[in-house]
Amino acid sequence: MAWSAAQYVKFEDERTRAARDLLAQVPALPDGIAYDLGCGPGNSTELLVERFPYHSIVGVDSDGDMLGAARKRLPDIEFARGDLSTWTPPQPAALLFANAVFQWVPDHIAVLSRLMEALVSGGILAVQMPDNRGEPNHTEMDATTEDPRWATYFSTHHPRRPPLPPTIAYYDALAAKAARVDIWHTIYNHPMADAATIVEWLRGTGLRPYLAKLPADEQEPFLEAYRQRLENAYPPAADGRVLLRFPRLFMVAVKG
Questions:
Q1: Can you give the pTM of this predicted structure?
Q2: C-alpha span between 206 and 104 (Å, rounded)
Q3: I want to staple 44 with a disulfide (CB 3.0 to 4.6 A). Which of 19, 136, 155, 193 is the partner?
Q4: Could you count the other beta carbons within 10 Å of the beta carbon of residue 62?
Q5: DSSP state, 160?
Q6: In terms of C-beta distances under 8 Å and separation of at least 24 residues, what long-range contacts does 228-232 make, across chains too?
Q7: Burial class (CB in 10 A: 0-12, 13-18, 19+), 219
Q8: Please, are residues 74 and 56 in contact by the beta-carbon 8 Å criterion?
Q9: Phi and psi at residue 28, in whole multiples of 5°?
């Protein structure tokens, strides 16, 4: 599944806010390289460069378009292509920072546990993931796939992303290898102009695997049907805008 950096950065301020909130809880780093895993177009990498100017920063992503945008944005920073399901830093890292990427990685608790072992003593694993599979922007997406017009395209290998495992599963996996683990949820409420704006947001992330299942001439009708469902799910506020409720899970683990 290809990604679009241009589509992703249409909501860069909202997407980067969670990265800022995660980074605010990262303590001082030991010596070593800091990696931005799933760096996308470099918006989160830029935060790491500002916060840790005396550390080497490396961005890692699996998508060529995202890496191209990141290199253009930060030409002095190293960016590398890597599949996070198998990727390991070439030497123990001071920081493994991951903003909104591991929800796409199968069996990611096992991957996070493995990455804890790839940190130096005192190194930090900092992870944020959307925890919004129960929100209308996702449940209505799935409901749209049940429409007879498109149901056959989704009858096998449905792109539905599974919900995140229970929080205690992350704690148990990380606490066994960490001196300290901090896990919390934050619920953002992003004001959006209307339901169509929510669709535009999701086109950069959650809708991409759904649209990939459809022929080109069916994608816009699918999006319009999805938009109509969102209009019912997100009533307007007094000023006419709608609030996109967005729960996110955060974790910071410090290796002993």
A1: 0.92
A2: 10
A3: 19
A4: 18
A5: P
A6: 228/195, 229/140, 229/143, 229/144, 230/136, 230/137, 230/140, 230/195, 230/198, 230/199, 231/194, 231/195
A7: middle
A8: no
A9: -60, 145
